[in-house]
Amino acid sequence: TKDWNGIDQVVLRNPQGASAKVSLQGGQVTSWRNEKGEELLFTSSKAIFKPSKAIHGGIPIYFPQFGNCGSLEQHGFARSKFWTIEENTPDLQPNDFNAKGCVDLLLKPSEEDLKCWPYSFEFRLRVLLGVDGDLTLISRVRNVNGKPFTFSFAYHTYLLVSDISEVRIEGLETVDYLDNLRQRERFTEQGDAVTFESEVDRVYLRCPNVIAVLDHEKKRTYVIRKEGLPDVVVWNPWEKKSKSMVDFADEEYKQMLCVDGAAIEKPITLKPGEEWTGRLQLLVVPSTFCSEQ
Ligand code: BG6
């Protein structure tokens, strides 16, 4: 199907009525809904959906650079490129096909891209909507030939929350982080959970593979499972930064929180023929379910 600006997108559905939308622009998940039709990802009401423009919302992919520490545009080019659908891809794991909805996308560098980043890669993204309404993203980056290359990566996941002041992240306690608001200085998380009362822009390093984001008001917990992604970015722009972003409404920071599975501290190097896989699974459970575990 096409979205409202005519950009191709794929809609995945499971028999229970959950759904996900994946835009070929950016290879980006732009919506994920539960079986009641409730949206679970944030997208700014001011997001600009047009070719070559990164969307503030959903799950943009940051590749091959995180932030602006490098020669490329902020967060790399993958999120602003047009991806293609790949038919008949080989199986990854037998369990993947138990899921009811699945799409495979492919990004390869154009001649123009090779001028900015002269490496031959194939980036395959599989998006799966599971029987429990869970959403899995599997990224496989392959060095096709030529010279070795190095990249950073993040699934920049905009979770929709009811009130940022009532949200807590569990799983990052005692973990070290780099604070982007303090010249990437290194600190250790002291709290028993991460909570929010001002702008936060951090890269937590070598984190556990399961992180929980508890939305107290909605009595809903996002469970984030990751593999091949040691780091976790936590970002909320808060009031001042929100006002400086043209494609983001002033008050929207209250309804969103980015928690990214990422590989940033130690960038990935691939020699010719080598492949890297980074996997993220998102699941929503009622908060009561979590506390009983
Ligand atoms: C986060 C960064 O991952 O992305 C922030 O840590 C940045 O520093 C944010 O502001 C959004 O970036 P962009 O380029 O989508 O506005």
TrEMBL record:
Q: What is this protein called?
A: Uncharacterized protein
Origin species, per record, is Pistacia integerrima
